Amino acid sequence: MTATPVATTPELKAPAPSASAIAKKRLSSPWASLVAIVVAVLWTLPTFGLLLSSFRPEMDIKRTGWWTFFSDPQVTLDNYRAVFDEETGVNLADFFVNSLTICIPAVLIPIALAALGAYAFAWINFRGKNILFLAIFALQIVPLQVTLIPLLTIFVKIDISGTFWPLWLAHSTFALPLAIYLLHNFMKEIPAGLIEAARIDGAGHVSIFFRVMLPLLIPALAAFGIFQFLWVWNDLLVALVFAGGGDEVAPITLQLANITGTRGTAWHLLASGTFVSIIVPVTVFLLLQRYFVRGLLAGSVKG
Amino acid sequence: MFETASTTPEKLLQMLSALLLFAAVMGVILFIASRVRGKRSDNWVGYLYLLPVVVLLAVGLVYPGLRTVYESFFDAHGEEFIGVDNYKTILTDNDQLVVLGNTIIWVVLVPPLATAIGLVYAILVDKSRFESFAKALIFLPMAISMVAASVIWKFVYEYRVNQPNVNQIGLLNQIIVWLGGEPVQLLITDTGRLNTLLLIVVFIWIQAGFAMTILSAAIKAIPDEIVEAARLDGVSPWSMFFKITLPSVRTTVVVVLTTLAIGTLKVFDVVRTMTGGNFKTSVIANEFYSQLIRADNQGLAAALAVVLFILVLPIVFYNIRHVRREA
To answer: Could you read off the pLDDT of B204-253 as tens digits, one per residue?
Structure first.
């Protein structure tokens, strides 16, 4: 609905101490550090435990806690082999491909559509512009759940259920209101002189969009693209409703949820499977942290 | 092109053809737009650019939304008009009241706790040597899927029977045992809403990073002069926090609280993955799914979706108004 009004500029290395820095210093640093360390440990320990578990032999995982690793270190890659193995029936590789197949169009399509739409709202004068913009802005508040039942009916009726199409179409549609709003705000910031100069040179809206606007838009497109990619990659609800029927189109989150439900005792598969599923988002996060945070700040209220 | 693809090459081929089809549609739109001439050309180009967006939103969002409201007045299979019976069920049925009650517990607890943790942590690590690393640790749960987060925490909450030769494999129960207690079936025990509270812990674990990131940015935006002046006046650390830091980031705190509240109302993945909504842990968004798919009660599912929408609305309006006023 609303982008958070936050300066998302990367942290400046300002030498002046901030209010909190002073407050912290006065709070007798040892205590402050202790609290920070306790929180950091609490936040890291569960993930660390699972990561360690994923490398322990199946029998060890099922009989002892991960902390016994330190008294009896046993390491194996079997769990990772098992989730890709045909025999265990997990076949994560297939679901990995599904996730990618879902994500790529579900990111590219809404971005392209939203960029074009945002350009129209920002730089073309047409009748009904303000009303239409307000309407699209308002659509951001609609929770996904409200749309799912009728969409399911539509997809069955036009006979594309069980394919990737419902997921592509649904994710693309749900992304549009926020994407248009964000890209519009970004485009409005671009100096009007640039566009007018191009117009005087005889350029139409098509060539202005491609030659003037698109190159300037790349950071905004990247931020939103990464956010949308992770949103789709991590999604469970849309996948359950539109791809719950068969393994052919189900993404990796769905398979992971299935193992949890039907094979809740297969701890060795759960541990390694979870890490396979988070490789992509964690890599994206580590490599593109700045863009990712910016996209997240802007899109945190989606869906 | 519209069939089910079952092998990897088929899938990739379908993806490629979908993208090509999309590119072709865009190409046609841009081609026509480049040919439009005349006095009213701006009007037409504007409509053309927005045509695909409007079509998708009308068919994919507006119509389904209205249709869901309509269907919420019908029975399980959308055949018979039953008035407000579905809404009555949500407000009177014992199981549904548990769902509603749980949702309220979630919304009351998650936003303030996640915000408080995020704010305190942001202040503590601010300007420290390990700031970005420390922040990444807290933020990482936000990047992974809630399904993965749930599996991670299932390992913490796992329970094994209390027998001499059986070890606990869940960290929390092991700690209970180390402290001399009896292991507890953590996710099954609903006494004092224990299991719901433990699910809430997972969600706070996921969301605190979001609160921290936004609040950290707000803290860094506090003007140095104010801080410096307060420091010269020799204010205590506590009044620095309550009189300078907190008032300066108040708006951001409200935005974070409302944003988290909206997200919490829609919480689904965590509940569905960890308990499936069993043992009295269901919440509205999970109940929506259960009624739709498992109980095959389309009418009730539709009504639950509408209730979710109604609950989200006031928070959204508050959020927008607050942001607008400041902006």
So the answer is: 999 999 999 989 988 988 998 988 898 889 888 888 889 999 999 998 89
Based on its alpha-carbon atoms, the radius of gyration of chain A, rounded to whole angstroms, reads 24
Instruction: Indicate if A75 and A99 belong to the same structural domain.
Output: no
Same domain, A56 and A102: no
Q: Which residues of B touch A30 (CB under 8 A)?
A: none
The ipTM estimated for the assembled molecules is: 0.93
Instruction: For residue B214, give the nearest of A4, A25, A248 by CB distance.
Output: A4
Whether chain A has a CB inside 8 Å of the CB on B175: the answer is: no
DSSP B234: T
Give, in words, the CATH class of B86-326.
mainly alpha
Q: Which domain holds residue A141?
A: 92-299
Closest chain A C-alpha to B255 CA, distance in angstroms: 7
Touching check for A26 and chain B: CB below 8 Å?
Answer: yes
A110-164 pLDDT per residue, tens: 999 999 999 999 999 999 999 999 999 999 889 999 999 999 999 999 999 989 9
A301–B263 CB contact, under 8 Å: yes
Question: Which residue, B316, B310, B214, is CA-closest to B258?
Answer: B316
Domain-wise residue ranges, chain B:
8-83, 86-326
